[in-house]
Amino acid sequence: MDLMDKFDTDGYAIFRNVLDAELIAEADQHVRWLQERYPGRSGEDLSTELVARDPFWVRLVSDDRLLDIAEKFIGPDIALFASHYIAKPPHTGKAVLWHQDGAFWPLDPMNVVTLWLAVDRSTPENGCLRVIPGTHREELHAVREREGDGAVFNVESDVTVDESKAVDMVLDPGDVEVHHPSIMHGSNANTSPHRRCGLTIRYIPTSTRITAEPQPFPSALHLRGNPGVNTYQPKPRYIEGEHFPFADAPAWA
């Protein structure tokens, strides 16, 4: 089945070997650098307000290979809405409860696509992403809090999920899984000896309005084509000694 047909049918698709090993190695070092720089944050809590101030992060989400995939789903005018490393540590990495992303996002209309970039090999043993195929055709469900589970976010969709239908997203570093904002998805805890790190990248067409206040949204960046209806953060300039060093840093200075 063609990947676009699979996305239409199942609500997700996997693109293999999208990014090269050298860039993925830099992403691996970047998340480790972030954890050292922000010791109060867990590996599962590196996101939104950090993105637009970080030249490597912006360089990564601006990569043409990723934007070319996003363009297949949302067209040529592309902005970043949000991005989030979820680096589940060995043995103690937390689960993510079943949910639909679109139930939480301040977007109008809900025209958005998520690219989930594997930094580590992602398997059932270390808590890989799991999806329920076809649920992207459902309406967005209400959400409820669930205390005491030690999940990354203690919020889940307020419906019963048939986990027997779940599909594990087994990914190698550099692979990209793409999913719809309405698909039901989550992940189990990481009880293995191996970290499981992925970077979520939420791209929107620039005709989709970010409705949260204040503006601009902390991680809103114009990446390709017409800037559209939103205001955006300025792209950061690389400062040696302040930012994560990377191969393309001179071009961002």
TrEMBL record:
Keyword Cell division among UniProt keywords: no
SUPFAM superfamilies listed in its UniProt record: Clavaminate synthase-like
Pfam families with a match to the protein in the record: PhyH
UniProt keyword list: Dioxygenase, Oxidoreductase
Highest taxon of source: Bacteria
UniProt key word Oxidoreductase: yes
GO function terms (MF aspect): 2-oxoglutarate-dependent dioxygenase activity; iron ion binding
Protein name: Phytanoyl-CoA dioxygenase family protein
